[in-house]
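Intended use. Records like the one below are meant for learning the mapping from a protein sequence to its folded structure. Do not use them to infer anything beyond what is encoded.
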Amino acid sequence: MERIFNGKIQGTGRRRNKRISQDEPIRLGTPEYNSPISGTKEPSGSSEVNSTGQTFDWKLTPIRDTTAGKILERLNVLEKSTLGYIHSHQDRLKARLGESQQTEEEFLRESNQIKSDIYHLAVAQQNSNGNGNGHH
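Structure written out for the chain above:
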């Protein structure tokens, strides 16, 4: 087992003592959260990246009213506003999907009509050429 004494790591085996530089942090791991009492996230020095590629840094904020009722109230407000946005966005996506499907149907209908017109024109030209009258 190793222990640190006056900036040196001391082991119980035959290993030599290693000097820790004052600039080198001791890597014991960074706790992700403060004590369970406060429940606030410990700033870790790393930035998170959201889905749009933007980075945002988490920062410690002053403690608010942390009664169970107030926390539930804030959670309910957060859920309502976020779900409201998500559902509105989904409705817009569904509307756009409906428009896209309608446009696709119109395109296929017109495309099929044009193919049919070309087919009938080709058949008519073939018949007029096949009759031997020489007229187009």
